[in-house]
Fold this sequence. Notes:
The protein is α+β, with helices and mostly antiparallel strands.
Amino acid sequence: MTTNWAGNITYRADRIHRPATVAELQALVAGSRRIRALGTRHSFNDLADSSGALVSLADLRSSVELDTGRATAKVPAATRYAELVHFLDERGFALPNLGSLPHISVGGACATATHGSGVRNGCLSTSVSAIELVTAGGDLITVERGGEHFDGVVVGLGALGVVTSLTLDLVPAFEMRQQVYEGLPLEALDDHFSALVHSAYSVCLFTDWRAPRLTQVWINERLDEPPADVVKQPWFTALPADGPRHPVTGMPTASCTEQLGVPGRWHERLPHFRPDAEPSSAGDELHSEYMLARRDAVAALHALDGIRDRVQPVLQICEVRTIAADRLWMSPFYDQDSVSIHFTWTSDTSAVLPIVRLVEQRLAPFAARPHWAKIFTIAPPDLRPMFPRLPDFADLVRTYDPAGKFGNPFVDRYLH
Length: 416
Ligand SMILES: Cc1cc2nc3c(=O)[nH]c(=O)nc-3n(C[C@H](O)[C@H](O)[C@H](O)COP(=O)(O)OP(=O)(O)OC[C@H]3O[C@@H](n4cnc5c(N)ncnc54)[C@H](O)[C@@H]3O)c2cc1C
């Protein structure tokens, strides 16, 4: 049976359907007892699995519809960002932000509040202005921003139906340059975290936790904005990298987007990885990620520094990003300007899980919300209060899907 991208989850679903038309999909959903949408399989837990069947929309014959007047694009859910960004850029449009990997599907990314970085940038789901989905009875419905339940439907975790297309708000295309700096002591963040993350459109901080320092600082500036003068401050002692870098120190850089301050298109700088290459790890990794109030970032990093000897043996790299608050019910950024602390672990699940638990204990005082699509062990009773609109979402799931057709053990665990 099929596995996820990382190979740590073998889907239990008995088959994966691949309808060629929306009408076929509607009939399939209406006639199924248990079914669930599958994107590009980049999630790291059993969120995407089904105890019945899965359905991939990769064979649906549809294309992106651009509305230049409204600056929106109606995008088939199975479209990968890697394909979409070229289409948009060639026509003078952009998305405000992208995740680190462009190979993931728009439907899967938005269903789980996938994000990039930048204090002014919301997660990718905040670009959605309308969503079209096939509900449990096989009906095709559209839910639009401003309409009832919209804020509950967008980050839907696959639990409300099979999303066939998403309409995304666009911005004019822009150019960026990306520069990597190396070796900033953690203590520099004590007084300057805010200045650092506000210094450019998208800033990503990396540490391997072998020492209390950032191994790398990735500063991504828009060419139409003032340059990041934070790098001229006396406390910014990190040095510009003398060549391209992979976030994991020493890994081959061929799969990484261009750095060294070379100007380029928005979609060739915002992700860490190039659309035409798989990351060098090729799936040999596990991910966890936690989101907390941005004001707690420095305290949380110090809390993790206290366990770095335990963390670093199973860690490839830890990344810190910022995300603007949103109003999407199941988003980990709901109502909270956030910092995310991400861990790329080694692929040894049994060695990683105890450290995941330890990290969660250290971050518990900050009510750190997990990324829905990554590995976490937070018990359902501890998780539910972190998502204030979770009871509303559970009601919505009951309304849309009274028989639990789109349910699975993951959803049942956390929602009910
Ligand atoms: C190398 C790597 C890098 C990553 N980088 C980032 C990052 O920078 N930022 C970040 O936030 N996350 C990141 N992620 C996590 C990733 O964005 C999420 O796992 C996302 O859900 C993957 O989308 P997918 O299409 O692979 O979804 P899948 O894993 O296939 O499915 C995930 C969920 O989406 C639902 N879903 C998928 N398609 C549909 C649909 N058409 N209708 C309804 N529900 C649907 C599924 O039912 C499931 O619940 C990364 C993952 C990997 C492997």
